[in-house]
């Protein structure tokens, strides 16, 4: 994934492909005039991005033995924890989080396809209140729920992208649910719009 800035709509190619999966990072931290969170939509066609959000700011991980990584103490939330661990921020920390969650899903469901694994992660994510779909996609990755939840959905956002004019009288998006368990599951569905209220202005007839 490539970002071109902290403003909305700065997620760019190679995720111009609708089937590409992208991940955001939880938390904001200013760094060299930039921001660790680049919200969608996708530049150009306004496709919903990112698909999911993962931890990526001041995350603790193992230090590489025999290297100089974080050998010098620094101020702030990132830097060495001890001889064996360090805290760092960025996609290098966010990517392993979602990749590890995908590995757990694949281990629990070895017959699942890559698309089904991705759908399991997106369908089970935990949305954060106050953030739009362009900030977090379907929400924060939840590995345990992704493994255990039997129901997945083809898309958590009814993504219409950029609608050009002229166009047909009706545009629809189909969302399908899949239940991998042996028993029926009743879903309590709700529709949330990024614009819950739309005002339609009055237009006077010039002939009156």
UniProtKB/TrEMBL annotation:
List the Pfam families hit by this protein, alphabetically.
Peptidase_S8
Q: Which GO terms describe its biological process?
A: proteolysis
Q: Basic and acidic residues bias located where?
A: 71-80
Q: Which InterPro entries match?
A: Peptidase_S8/S53_dom, Peptidase_S8/S53_dom_sf, SBT
Q: Where is the Peptidase S8/S53 domain?
A: 46-129
Disordered: where is this region?
1-80
Compositionally skewed regions (Basic residues) per UniProt:
16-31
Molecular functions (GO terms)? serine-type endopeptidase activity
Which top-level group of life is the source organism from? Answer: Bacteria
What the record says about family reads: Belongs to the peptidase S8 family.
Q: What is this protein called?
A: S8 family serine peptidase
């Amino acid at each position: 994934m490539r970002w071109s800035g902290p403003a909305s709509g700065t997620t760019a190619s190679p995720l111009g492909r609708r089937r590409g999966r992208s991940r955001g990072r939880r938390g904001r931290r200013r760094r060299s005039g930039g921001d660790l969170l680049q919200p969608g939509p996708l530049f150009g066609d306004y496709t919903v991005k990112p698909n999911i959000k993962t931890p990526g700011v001041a995350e603790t991980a193992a230090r590489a033995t025999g290297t100089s990584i974080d050998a010098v103490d620094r101020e702030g939330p990132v830097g060495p924890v001890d001889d064996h661990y360090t805290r760092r921020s960025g996609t290098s920390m966010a990517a392993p989080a979602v990749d590890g969650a995908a590995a757990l899903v694949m281990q629990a469901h070895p017959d699942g396809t890559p698309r089904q694994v991705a759908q399991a992660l997106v369908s089970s994510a935990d949305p954060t209140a106050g953030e739009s779909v362009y900030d977090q996609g379907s929400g924060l990755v939840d590995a345990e729920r992704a493994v255990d939840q039997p129901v997945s959905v083809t898309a958590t956002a009814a993504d219409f992208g950029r609608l050009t004019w002229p166009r047909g009288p009706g545009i629809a998006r189909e969302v399908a649910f899949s239940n991998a368990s042996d028993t029926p599951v009743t879903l309590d569905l709700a529709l949330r719009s990024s614009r819950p209220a739309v005002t339609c202005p009055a237009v006077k007839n010039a002939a009156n």
